[in-house]
Design goal:
Helix 4 packs antiparallel against helix 5. The protein has 2 domains: 87 residues, no CATH class; 37 residues. It has 5 helices and 4 strands, in the order H-E-E-E-E-H-H-H-H. By secondary structure, the chain is an alpha+beta fold. It starts with a helix and ends with a helix. Helix content is 48%, strand content 21%. The longest helix is centred in the last third of the chain and has 25 residues. The protein is elongated and about 65 Å long.
Length: 132
């Protein structure tokens, strides 16, 4: 859990490295264009939907890592949001849910996790039989 907090802090601090390029309104959605300070000319788009409070970004970081990217934090700051939107807050997940997420992202790591759990369960069953 501490690792996730450190990574989120890194993304929040990384929002300072973004330069504002443009802001457009499309219906209830505000589209932000920004660039990374060290990569001028490389633009990233992020959106804020005022009607439902949704923040999203084209970089795909949220879908890959499960927490908001620096672009999303930039938009939250620019929109003066007082709280992080609920859908961006990690909820406690069960082991099965984490394995499902891991399997969807990295098959080899998922297979290694399942193999490790299988051997752990076999060892525990063996030890249990020794006590019974």
């Amino acid at each position: 859990m501490r690792e996730v907090i450190a990574y989120v802090k890194w993304e929040i601090e990384g929002a300072r490295l973004l330069n504002f390029v443009n802001k457009n309104m499309v219906l209830n959605t505000i589209v932000y264009t920004m660039e990374v300070y060290s990569h001028q000319g490389v633009n990233v788009l992020a959106i804020f939907d005022k009607s439902i409070g949704k923040v999203d970004c084209q970089c795909g970081f949220w879908k890959k890592n499960g927490y908001a990217c620096r672009h999303m934090f930039y938009v939250m700051k620019a929109e003066h949001l007082k709280e992080i939107p609920d859908r961006l807050v990690l909820k406690r997940a069960t082991t099965a849910q984490w394995l499902f997420i891991l399997g969807a992202q990295r098959l080899l790591m998922f297979q290694m996790a399942i193999s490790g759990l299988t051997s752990l369960f076999q060892r525990l069953e063996g030890e249990y039989r020794g006590y019974a």
